[in-house]
């Protein structure tokens, strides 16, 4: 097994087992400076899970069509005795697999009549088995749904009587990975959470998940446009809708203005102006993480007497603001 993340319990993201199954996380990013094809084209998968298809990695791909081409090549690698699992909530993925006839194809979604994973009376179930995963949010529940399907496909043959118990135990015991819904501090009145979200879809999904999980908390979203894609204005409009559910949103200027020319650069000030209307949030602009902290400290008192959750989203260090965020959260009453 090999996944691209560090587990929260300190264990590595890889493990050598005794079986014949190898599980690897792959994405469409390029393989190396001398090989611009996507990494997942080197894996020769028997089973493939497609859980999203969005434009990203603007430093590598010129448009969504280029990414779709890589996904088509991946699909063509799946053998006749394999299977493709795809999220049927994605129109792009549906279109991609609609003509596949050389191997089995299965759509998935959680909390539907034909789903493995369902929500009953504020609790998560797989059939009659109650689950208690540390992960939360629709995007994580979709991943659990397809993990159940893939594991069942393989393990019910090897261990028909006990495979469900093993899968349920793995789901409940998995601690998650660092920088994903990572709680850095928690008190009765305040939470500080770090998340790697930087794509507009990921930002939206993360805020939505946090809002549902921590009902009654005021959500303070902090966002640093730092990745190659978030630097660019390709998602200027989409970002303006990404912060729905956030009560206060502070955006910094992009991390390195010199990295991208002005004509294709995300206009953060313009984005902030659109947030009030499109995301129904109080928007604030900060020129850098240092100014963000100054403005945040001045604005937190407006939430006195209310629980707050400070959600910091960046794919980088965010100027090292996390210790200071914890200090501010400790003082909140």
Automatic annotation (TrEMBL):
Domain Mur ligase central: 20-150
Keyword annotations of the record: Ligase
Domain of life: Bacteria
Keyword Transit peptide applies: no
Any one GO molecular function term: ATP binding
InterPro entries, per the entry: Mur-like_cat_sf, Mur_ligase_C_dom_sf, Mur_ligase_cen, MurCDEF_pg_biosynth
Entry keyword Isomerase: no
Protein name stated in the entry: Mur ligase family, glutamate ligase domain protein
Annotated source species: Leptospira interrogans serovar Australis str. 200703203
